[in-house]
């Protein structure tokens, strides 16, 4: 098996994995909000202000909608990443589309990561709004996972830029021949 064939095989697998993740992300998030009593450990960043028994259905729905914003951005990015892997699967390695798709994925990862702390803060408000005065909370946190994702997104943005410039240079050189 040639290296190109190996790349095509891995790319097909990665493309399918992107689709699977796009399907699973909203389902897992929905499960968290539906089975709240069992899964509320996922919201431990809110701390002692979280009282599951006081969270009515409308606030759970609001929490789900707010939580979906960064997830939806990531899902959109994963669809671009899937399209990139589909190009690789077809042995298209050096097109402008490759750079464009990688750039779009990186931007969506970047925006999703920026939206996550904001969404977490809004969720903390939605979940503690029914608490008695003095026990409501606005929790803002930025974790190492957020910083790691921002770094990875920035790396992908830089690689996409280099790929775009390399493609433009290759086009320019091809015109001289």
What does this structure look like?
- With 177 residues, this protein is mostly helical.
- It has one domain.
- It is 76% helix and 0% strand.
- The chain has helices spanning 3-34, 36-39, 57-89, 96-128, 144-176.
- It is elongated, with a radius of gyration of 21 Å.
- It holds the Pfam family DUF2975.
- This is DUF2975 domain-containing protein.
- InterPro entries: DUF2975 (IPR021354).
- Keywords: Membrane, Transmembrane, Transmembrane helix.
Order of helices and strands: HHHHH
Query: Rg, please?
Result: 21 Å
The largest sheet is: none
Counting helices, strands and paired strands, the structural category is mainly alpha
Helical amount among residues, as a percent range? Answer: over 70%
Supply the number of structural domains: 1
pLDDT averaged over residues:
89
Q: What's the count of strands?
A: 0
How many H/I helices?
5
Share of β-strand residues: under 5%
CA-CA gap between termini: 33 Å
Keywords: Membrane, Transmembrane, Transmembrane helix
Protein name: DUF2975 domain-containing protein
InterPro entries: DUF2975
Pfam families: DUF2975
């Amino acid at each position: 098996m040639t290296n190109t064939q190996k790349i095509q095989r891995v790319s097909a697998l990665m493309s399918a994995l992107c689709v699977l993740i796009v399907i699973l992300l909203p389902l897992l998030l929905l499960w968290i909000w539906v089975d709240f009593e069992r899964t509320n450990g996922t919201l431990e960043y809110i701390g002692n202000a979280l009282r599951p028994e006081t969270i009515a259905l409308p606030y759970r729905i609001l929490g789900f909608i707010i939580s979906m914003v960064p997830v939806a951005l990531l899902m959109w990015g994963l669809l671009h990443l899937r399209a990139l892997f589909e190009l690789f699967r077809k042995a298209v390695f050096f097109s402008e589309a490759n750079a464009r798709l990688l750039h779009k994925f990186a931007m969506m990862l970047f925006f999703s990561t920026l939206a996550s702390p904001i969404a977490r803060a809004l969720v903390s408000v939605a979940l503690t709004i029914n608490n008695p005065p003095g026990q409501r909370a606005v929790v803002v946190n930025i974790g190492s996972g957020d910083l790691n994702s921002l770094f990875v997104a920035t790396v992908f943005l830089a690689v996409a830029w280099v790929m775009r410039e390399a493609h433009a240079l290759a086009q320019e050189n091809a015109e001289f021949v």
